[in-house]
Amino acid sequence: MNMRALVVRRLDGPDSLEMIETPLPEPAQGQVRIKVAAAAINPIDLVVASGIAVQAGLTVLREQFGLGWDVAGVVDAAGPGTDLAVGTPVIGLADRLGRPLKTHAEYVVLDTTAVTLAPTNVDLVNAATIPLNALTALRALKLLQLTADTVLVTGAAGGVGGYAVELAKHFGLTVIAAAGEEDEEYVRSIGADHFVSRAQDLTTAVHAIVPAGVDALVDAANLEMAAQEAVRTGGQHTHFHAGPTPPALRGITVHQILVQADRTELAELSELAARRVISTRVADTYPLDDAVTAYKRLAKGGVRGRLVLIP
Hints:
Elements: E1 2-8, E2 17-23, E3 31-41, H1 43-49, H2 52-55, E4 65-66, E5 70-78, E6 89-93, E7 107-111, E8 115-117, H3 124-127, H4 131-144, E9 150-154, H5 159-170, E10 174-179, H6 184-189, E11 194-197, H7 202-209, E12 214-219, H8 225-228, E13 231-239, E14 253-256, H9 263-274, E15 282-287, H10 291-300, E16 306-310
Helix pairs in contact: 4-5
């Protein structure tokens, strides 16, 4: 039996995407095969498709790269030593670069350590937007929550930034959200205590709210030093680029966040989504056959929420 899968070989952006027919993968020990109901597109997929991931040394050049990190669907087959029964609705994260097949396909095989039960009362299209972005934000906040009281979130209207705002409020932090002026209503609606427009000087605006500077920075917009200047001496800075980290000036600790699938944390996020502590944000859906259109739309920028592919 075969399935359809989206892959890239020429590494030339959205126009290089190919839909292939490939044998249905079989789950091994500790793995499940998921019949994909929905799979979000993330900026990292564009990074892979354009060849930037290879150029940056994040993975080696291969003949074929699979695409897609997030997935929501139903367990279709289970290998030995798994505890997820066939028919179970799940979400998962394909966190490895360089795999020939990933979640932008009709089926995907994942380790059970990267899969958890889908949130109740959340449809699978919306659930597909949770794993990568929410897990990245959770990792960042867990590094900060024990010592931080005030946190600055840049890119607060984006995928990672939006979850960072919601999770920071869940952890009891005071949140200053930085985003475009048109996003103020949204970021306040998800829990931001204070708002700074992208048009303002970030450091000046933050110091007007917290004169000594914030305890911590979740730099989802990758502003680096332009945002670190708003952090107090001895504070913390979470950085999401895979390249060199910004310098740790004034005794500031810089944490580099590189996401890794973790079943326990995915389960935590699934529960929070079921309780409406964290929200989902689908910008639009596209059939898998029209993935090129969706990728091109994401590449143009300005998408609020996630574009989701439906096999």
